[in-house]
Amino acid sequence: MSRLIVISNRVNPPAEAGQGSAGGLAMALAAALRESSGVWFGWSGETTELFTGQLSVRRIGGVTVALIDLEDQDRQEYYNGYANKTLWPLFHYRMDLAAYERSFSAGYERVNERFAQTVLPLIEPDDIIWVQDYHLLMLARELRKRGVKNRIGFFLHIPWPARRVFTTLPGHAELAEALFHYDLLGFQTEDHRDAFSDYAVHSAGGVLHEGGVVEAFGRKVRIGAFPIGIDTPEFVAAVQSEPAREHFTRMRDSLAGRRMILGVDRLDYSKGLEERFLAYEQFLADNPDQHEKLFLLQIATSTRGEVEAYQDIRAKLDTVSGRINGEFASVDWVPIRYVNRAYRRDELAGVYRAAHIGLVTPLRDGMNLVAKEYVAAQDPADPGVLILSEFAGAAEQMKEALIVNPFSREDVAEAIKRGLAMPREERLRRWESLMHGVATQDVAAWRDSFVEALTGAPAEAPTLQPVG
Ligand SMILES: O=P(O)(O)OC[C@H]1O[C@H](O[C@H]2O[C@H](CO)[C@@H](O)[C@H](O)[C@H]2O)[C@H](O)[C@@H](O)[C@@H]1O
Ligand SMILES: O=c1ccn([C@@H]2O[C@H](COP(=O)(O)OP(=O)(O)O)[C@@H](O)[C@H]2O)c(=O)[nH]1
């Protein structure tokens, strides 16, 4: 078996299995790498005054990691800039929030070059290279320029947007062209995969061949849908852990006979938290008999706090939750418990299990692992109900959830009502089907199917001349 080199922006495998981290990618990759003898390469998260390119290699939680520091300018232009102020909003259909600054795209290209230059000495001829996510779309092209002929795969954790949205990006063709230097492109869903080939065919004048091969910009790349899952056995075990039991008991005690609706998200505008609060407000307005009989616990962990749009959404949610609580609360009941701190995943497992409804309503989401964790944490004898946005990648697989349009308050409010009233037999039937999917389409299946497809992908001979 070839050695796997995983390259991603963020490299933070948990020190021990079951330890918490606010971000699905880190958990998924740590689980995928634990069984492999490969290397995980990426940014340390630290910045220095001048870029040195010095590698720091260590072992964390059974995974060998190789880290580089970046410059502060890189953090601003590449991470906060092009990745999180340009690509993230655009790929989540927020053209109104996408910022286009030349310094951002220049910083992005520079960091992709720096990654290529620094990882180069680690690459051996038989290695398989697997690049993760929207921070590193240009990495294969930079590696090819430097003479790397290994198979290189790329997995996009966020949505690939519709063609008309992607073409609003200045320089979209250059970015798309860079993707054709990979051997395999993986997407979370068939919808994202098809949006990519639609762009290649209709905007870049390309051709879609048999077997999921797209040709454009004078090159061919194989594409496929590889929906990511959770480490289901590990998560099911975490539900039985001491921290999970402790949190389950603590939650159940604090319910005081009430029922709990639960949301768990990074505090990101793509997660539809404001719309969720407003839909819940609608539910309270429509169902006065339910007042004091339930509450919404929203865990919303801070993220990307240096980016203005995240400061704005945080302030907005403080206001909206405060307003709703002011409107409906009584002396011994608060309708929304709104929490910004992060919880460990084993703690979360206990909280998920105590919730009667898991409310997962992003406006756009690559996958959404919270939906899968919620299902995995349920009591098989008395499971809760998952309400899931049709715009989460997870909706393509989790058809037995109550699927809602998160933009419609009425739709979400009605689903809450239906979920609360759902008879046990129906909850059991839906949960069994959902759990079967979560158990079989787990992170190991995701990793294996991607690596197998990459190993079998026909490698394209690089045409650019090596540099340096
Ligand atoms: O690293 P951050 O900037 O703090 O953000 C955390 C991660 O968020 C994103 O997660 C995506 O990947 C998940 C797993 O595939 C998927 O379920 C979710 O829908 C996506 O939003 C992001 O793509 C990662 O790069 C970040 O590390
Ligand atoms: O306080 C928290 C909140 C979230 N998470 C984890 O963060 C991940 C979120 O992944 P998801 O795919 O739902 O969305 P992302 O944040 O990656 O966009 C899940 O594994 C959660 O268990 C966590 O560990 N602690």
Automatic annotation (TrEMBL):
It catalyses: D-glucose 6-phosphate + UDP-alpha-D-glucose = alpha,alpha-trehalose 6-phosphate + UDP + H(+). Pfam families: Glyco_transf_20. It is an enzyme of class 2 (transferase). Keywords: Glycosyltransferase, Transferase. CDD domains: GT20_TPS. Pathway: Glycan biosynthesis; trehalose biosynthesis. Gene3D superfamilies: Glycogen Phosphorylase B. One of its GO terms (molecular function) is alpha,alpha-trehalose-phosphate synthase (UDP-forming) activity. InterPro entries: Glyco_trans_20 (IPR001830), Trehalose_OtsA (IPR012766). Transmembrane segments: none annotated. Its EC number is 2.4.1.15. Probably involved in the osmoprotection via the biosynthesis of trehalose. Catalyzes the transfer of glucose from UDP-alpha-D-glucose (UDP-Glc) to D-glucose 6-phosphate (Glc-6-P) to form trehalose-6-phosphate. Acts with retention of the anomeric configuration of the UDP-sugar donor. Belongs to the glycosyltransferase 20 family. Homotetramer. This is Trehalose-6-phosphate synthase. It comes from Phenylobacterium terrae.
